[in-house]
Design a protein that fits this description.
alpha+beta, Glucose Oxidase, domain 1, 2 domains, 9-stranded mixed beta sheet, two-stranded antiparallel ribbon, 23% helix, globular, binds acetylphosphate
Length: 379
Amino acid sequence: MADDKQELEGVTQPRTQEIESPPRRDFIRGAAAATAAVGAVTVAMHELDLVKPAEAAEGTIDGTPMAQKWWPSRWGKDDQIGATNWMGPKTTMDAVSLIRTGKVYSLGRVYEFGMPLFGQRAWVLRIPGNPTGGAYGKNQTIWHDEILTTEIGQVGTQFDGLGHIGCRTAGGMGDKSKEIYYNGHTGVDLHNAGTGPGATSGAYGLVKLGVENVRPFFCRGILFDVAGLKGRMLDKGEEITVADLKACLARQGMTEADITEGAMVCWRTGWGENLWMKDNARFNSGEPGIGVEAANWLVSKGISVGAADVWAIEVVPNPDPDLAFPVHQIFLTRNGIHILENIRLDHLAADKVYKFAFVFSPLPIKGGTGSPGNPIAVA
Ligand code: UVW
């Protein structure tokens, strides 16, 4: 074949997995460049140039949401399951009480080649053989298997576990004891399981805070239809404020009392339904979402998981160019509150379903940082 286009016989879909990463790097580089301009230090972290303050006190990063020590957790110094501690008979029965019609909504997106991905993450699925196996028996049974290469917990609709995000504190470069995660667990705790025969390095999965620890979710879900409130899709870099969330509640005939401890809350920006698999470059170029103010407000309500129709749930770029993904740290690292990204919310909004039973069981991947899956809302 003369070139790729002929070989693909007219298939014009861009190789999204290769072309999507630059736009997301651009906004982070922009933040890094702005910081460099005022004299702060920037470092390369993997492929992403993240902003790193030059000085920070022991156990903290001054001037950021991680400025105060955040451990031990409200659930005790050894806790590894964070806000899923809320899950239990009370949250289950409360969620059941919200079911009125029995209509089930899939919140998950299809996992497929060409979906938007963060950085250089990949989705490579292959079916070996055709069929993979058989035929066996007089009845001639045949079957298919698949081989999947991906960041299993960090692509498509994705649930972030507590080992996903931490904070490198002062002197942390090269010192895992200064890389601190939920409940004060350190990089040493997450990566080292002792010495001698049987010891592992964490290369085969996180030794602490793996996603297998969390409880399944069966709790109330609350939708903030911010796109409905504004009458339009929000734009990248547009921050959803506490005033916006309160205005959503009023418009939806609800009050703050509807956000009970253990609730899953989600916000619709319109970004996903308008751009996912339609304009991946724009989808990846940044996003609307909550910022530090709204994150802290939701923390004060005792939510169990924050979710949205965007790839990081939070406003990107952050209005403070020195901050990179601060809501991730406020939720996961400081408070053990989980994050659920790239979910569908348009169908709930269309049916004006603002309160529902939320059901999701993250895959118990031992040592995993997160989980794929298809969360559901039952109205
Ligand atoms: C990062 O991993 C930084 O972001 P996300 O959780 O949005 O994939």
